[in-house]
């Protein structure tokens, strides 16, 4: 159908405006569907069970779809993320199971160092400092950071090539990043 | 979408690296990736099922309002076009010819009934009406007992409606070696009469729609107003009393376009009336019309 083809090309904002102004479930359905892979993953992360995650994604849709116009949504992505998280926490509370939230993951990342690592801008005067700091890192962290940010290898790739445990690779990169941030800030003054 | 391949279980390669790097800046994505990492299951199928059931909550193709409007407009246009294209079939042309002629004869109303010749054999019912001297024939309904089907058939039988131009005979000597262009003179005498099925009327009474329009100054209405302003002579009130008001003058236009039979319908003062008549007689010629012209002259 030409109409459904067209709706798939709408931006999130257009769909949200359509959902609110037209009172048409097609718009919100399309918008919600786009985020299901992310929402389902988040639900998996909190509920630790595929079936529960599925139910959570479905019940959330049924909950918010009829009253979407009543919410004050600025950015749909951040809004739906927090709503999903709350929904999962509510489910966990109801089930009286122990709430498992890995707060280390929620640690607010420093954008600056990430930007430096991602862009590797030659014009940036901090780049030599960054390179010097990377040399100072412990071996595992240095190898993981270099392979992840400079050789574009995935966590699994690094685990496969180095023989490190996959979860260890993740923490090496996290910690390496944090160490780099401290080092660069100290040396760029 | 990279996330799709991630959900399907792929963990190697640049694509995945790009996704994982994005996750460092995006907690939503990071938590989702964690979920997929930690819990094993047929996630791709679950997602497909979820997306399908959300689409089926309401009919997938609910058209927006403007589409419904556009569709109905298109439908109307289509139907209109169909009507227009088949107009000739739905309403035969001869109907309009007959209607037209009736309209015209109505406008020009038969002032002299003795001029109308009615074919008694074809229009028995009509005769009764004309004898009463109230035949106007504005529409078929008012003529009681009148079967319009018979009327149309009778029109079809008469060839007059083809308005074939009669041409005067002329003899021209021709050089057969060169191309020649021959213009034929119309025979005015024959064209002056047009058959109307149930009578004859002078052609000039029927066809010239121009002449049923109100006459206008040939130089144009605005220029004529200027002419009146410029040429009006106020000095006629030399006794010191200035008279203010309007004089309405009515006149007919002769075949040369000159105002004739000028009459004052709304007088103001004797001098003013005379001046008004003078202005009209000395003024521009007028377009020909059977209707009288009316001019207001403001003093």
Distance between the termini of chain A: 60 Å
Which class of secondary structure composition applies to the elements of chain A?
mainly alpha
N-to-C SSE series of chain A? HHHHHHHHHHH
Number of strands of chain A: 0
Describe this structure as you would to a colleague:
The complex is a heterodimer of chains A (189) and B (299). Chain A folds into 2 domains: 2-95, Orthogonal Bundle (Rna Polymerase Sigma Factor, Chain: A), CATH 1.10.1740; 108-187, Winged helix-like DNA-binding domain superfamily/Winged helix DNA-binding domain (Arc Repressor Mutant, subunit A). Chain A is mostly helical and 189 residues long. In chain A, helix 4 packs across helix 5 (76-95) and helix 8 crosses helix 11. Chain A is elongated, with a radius of gyration of 21 Å. In chain A, 74% of the residues lie in helices and 0% in strands. Chain B is mainly alpha-helical and 299 residues long. Chain B folds into 3 domains: 2-55, no CATH class; 91-207, no CATH class; 221-298. Chain B has helices at residues 2-7, 14-25, 27-38, 43-55, 65-85, 87-90, 93-107, 124-131, 148-157, 188-191, 203-206, 221-231, 270-282, and strands at 193-195, 200-202, 246-253, 259-266, 293-298. In chain B, strand 1 (193-195) and strand 2 (200-202) form a beta hairpin. In chain B, helix 2 packs across helix 3 (27-38). The longest helix of chain B is centred in the first third of the chain and has 21 residues, at 65-85. The termini of chain B are far apart. Mean pLDDT of chain B is 67; it is low at 92-100 and 104-170. The interface between A and B is large, with 51 and 48 residues.
